[in-house]
Write a structure and sequence with these properties.
The complex is a heterodimer of chains A (277) and B (395). Chain A is α/β, with parallel strands linked by helices and 277 residues long. Chain A is built from twelve helices and nine strands. The longest helix of chain A is centred in the N-terminal third of the chain and has 14 residues, at 80-93. The two termini of chain A are 15 Å apart. The model of chain A has no long low-confidence stretch (mean pLDDT 95). Chain B has 395 residues and is an alpha/beta fold. Chain B is built from 15 helices and 14 strands. In chain B, strand 9, helix 10 and strand 10 (249-257) form a beta-alpha-beta unit. The mean pLDDT of chain B is 96. The chains are: A alpha/beta (277), B alpha/beta (395).
């Protein structure tokens, strides 16, 4: 079944009356080996799912922290093919954890959609979000993803027109990505933005679970989005930066990651979920 | 979107969802303005009295005089601001004002589009920020100061190749945050719909004037219209009126840099392949894995690894052809026009001129050529002086 790992994960978080915590890493940052260690470290520390960025030379939706990570991975010679191989390796050791990738249209357009999504599926990837592919350009893409057993995930931005939001809700599988605010990835002290309204609109449109990303770096941010009705929170720049600092200081990944993931998960408790799909 | 924004299969609007709806608003405002007589009247007035249209079509007196070619230059270098860029920034500036935006952002390569945006920002009383690759800011220092003098803030972009593509990335990031009060005044006929169509429509005045002026000067259409292609706005502006005239050859000249068989060029149409860059499905200079490559040209304004999608369509349909001119050939043309006609061309435009000069040498019958002299070369004097020193044939 398409998106079964997400469904099973959300069933578990529902049973525990909490939201999901989903950290993000750039594949191959800073090297393939260290990336694998970081990803495994996050899973072992209790991450509910992983969101993994495929390095692209021109990441226009990303802020400085993710850009720097992408540059490190590209400098290490990491190719999209390497990314799929690395994720396949993770998948062999972790059969249950949902893994979504975040990529850019140029990487997807390198081959026909069916060839692309077959490779994605074969790597054990559950979902694909293409940052610069808006729903209006995505009909053939989304159909092909589903046919290959891969969840197409679309971004619900603030202020989306009703018609676009309706299509985003209809087309997304696995989860729906709600951006907390305008702008690119990256954290500030406070989480701003009217994601509560977007979540409510998605719910009315019959969307799959909304997960909020962009700007989530603190436990208080996680608590905020879960309280607003999100099924989970994605934390990118903060995780990428933390892992990078551990490498720079030659620290112990487990020592750093476990308390962080625990801290972020502790605040995901909420009222019993009433999201119906 | 109200229109499909495609040229053949190329074009489209490949942007983050959050910007798609901003582009829809822009398209709607643009289409409405096209049908609004008062908007068109204000634009026409500014093009005439502020920018200096029509620009002359000048027949060279000395250059190519010993060949069978009559060489005409469309003098966009005489336009206020020093390049064709002013045509379309006036259009987009008025549009931004009409949409209630208070802030303009733009990318710039050579600095010409940054200067043009800065002057329209000053004219219309809008806050203006220009993103410029750090490498470009170094080689176009005079234009940095011009932008600042016109009241714009210039932000140097240190990311990636530190040139035009990175400046565009940064402007897109700014826009995705500040779209509510900000218009992204993209400088070329590339990127996401509606930019390729909108910029072409604001630039097509170039070709329309060439046609009228040529009929008056020669009583016939030219044999070829030749223009340089980076993103492709001056070329599409010069070509557009002639697309239905099958006897008029349309020739786009890409920067061959140190040679098309080296890695140092910016010849996207000749050496690239289909991809998605800055919102358009178009040709892209990229490696086997789809990472966008750094382009190379002595001319900052042509140093771009993408190209406007309409040019891809014109190439694939066979209506236009695209050729390469190296840094060295462009330098020779730069010197030749300066010495023989007393006109210092932009290095960008010198690429188109170099190809016309080559055609002139080969011409075996009477031929009328038009080169779109898209900009003037004051900004390039440091670069050219340096390059000539390196060749040890200094002026």
């Amino acid at each position: 079944m398409i998106g079964h790992r997400y469904a099973e994960m959300f069933a578990r978080t529902d049973a525990e009356n909490r939201g999901a915590f989903i950290p993000f890493l750039v594949v191959g940052d800073p090297t393939p080996e260290l990336f694998l260690a970081a990803a495994q470290g996050l899973i072992d520390a209790g991450a509910d799912a992983l969101e993994l960025g495929i390095p692209f030379s021109d990441p226009t939706a990303d802020g400085p922290v993710v850009q720097a990570a992408v540059n490190r991975a590209l400098a290490a010679g990491v190719t999209p093919g390497d990314c799929f191989a690395l994720i396949a390796q993770l998948r062999r050791q972790n059969s249950a954890v949902p893994v979504g990738i975040l990529t850019y249209a140029n990487a997807v357009f390198q081959q026909p959609f069916d060839v692309y999504f077959q490779r994605v599926f074969a790597a054990g990837i559950d979902a694909v979000l293409t940052a610069d592919l808006p729903i209006a350009e995505a009909d053939a893409y989304a159909a092909q993803a589903e046919q290959c057993g891969v969840c197409p995930v679309f971004i619900a931005p603030p202020d989306a027109p009703d018609e676009a939001l309706r299509r985003i809700a209809q087309r997304s599988r696995g989860y729906t990505y709600v951006v907390s605010r305008s702008g690119v990835t990256g954290c500030n002290a406070h989480l701003t933005g009217d994601f509560r309204a977007t979540i409510a609109r998605l719910k009315a449109a019959g969307a799959v679970r909304p997960v909020v990303g962009f700007g989530i770096g603190e436990p208080s941010h996680v608590a905020q989005v879960v309280q607003a009705g999100a099924a989970g929170a994605i934390s990118g720049s903060r995780v990428v930066d933390m892992v990078h600092q551990v490498f720079l200081q030659r620290g112990d990944l487990r020592v750093a990651l476990s308390p962080f993931v625990e801290k972020m998960k502790r605040v995901t408790k909420r009222e019993p979920n009433v999201w119906k799909e | 979107m109200r229109e499909n924004g495609r040229f053949g299969v190329f074009g489209g609007a490949y942007v983050p969802e959050i910007l798609y709806h901003v582009l829809e608003e822009l398209e709607a405002a643009f289409l409405d303005a096209q049908n609004d007589a008062s908007f068109q009247a204000e634009l026409a007035l500014l093009l005439r009295d502020y920018a200096g249209r029509p620009t002359p079509l000048y027949r060279c007196r000395n250059l190519c005089a010993d060949t069978r070619v009559r060489l005409y230059l469309k003098r966009e270098d005489l336009l206020h601001g020093g390049a064709h860029k002013t045509n379309q920034v006036l259009g987009q500036g008025l549009l931004a004002k009409r949409m209630g935006k208070r802030r303009l952002i733009a990318e710039t390569g050579a600095g010409q589009h940054g200067v043009a945006t800065a002057l329209v920002g000053a004219l219309l009383g809008m806050t203006t920020r220009i993103y410029m690759g750090a490498k470009d800011a170094e080689r176009q220092a005079a234009n940095v100061f011009r932008m600042q003098m016109l009241g714009a803030e210039v932000v140097r972009v240190d990311a990636g190749s530190r040139t035009l593509k990175d400046a565009i990335n940064e402007a897109l990031r700014d826009w995705s945050q500040h779209y509510a009060d900000t218009h992204y005044l993209l400088g070329t006929a590339a990127g996401a719909h509606p930019f390729p169509t909108m910029v072409r429509d604001f630039q097509k005045v170039i070709g329309a004037e060439i046609k009228r002026q040529m009929l008056s000067a020669e009583g016939r259409l030219p044999d070829a219209v030749i223009a340089c292609v980076g993103g492709g706005s001056n070329a599409i502006g010069a070509f557009h009126a002639f697309v239905p005239d099958a006897d008029v050859a349309l020739i786009g000249v890409e920067p061959a840099g140190r040679g098309l068989d080296t890695e140092h060029h910016g010849a996207t149409l000749q050496k690239g392949r289909p991809g998605v860059l800055h919102g358009a499905h178009t040709y892209v200079l990229q490696d086997a894995h789809g990472q966008v490559q750094e382009s190379w040209s002595i001319s900052a304004g042509l140093d771009y690894p993408g190209v406007g999608p309409e040019h891809v369509h014109l190439m694939q349909s066979g209506r236009a052809r695209y050729v390469g001119v190296t840094d060295d050939m462009a330098l020779d043309a730069f010197v030749a026009l300066s010495r023989q006609e007393g006109i210092i061309p932009a290095l960008e435009s010198a690429h188109a001129l170099a190809f016309a000069m080559q055609m002139a040498q080969a011409a075996t019958r009477e031929t009328v050529l038009v080169v779109n002299l898209s900009g003037r070369g004051d900004k390039d004097l440091d670069t050219v002086s340096q390059a000539l020193k390196e060749r040890e044939v200094g002026p």
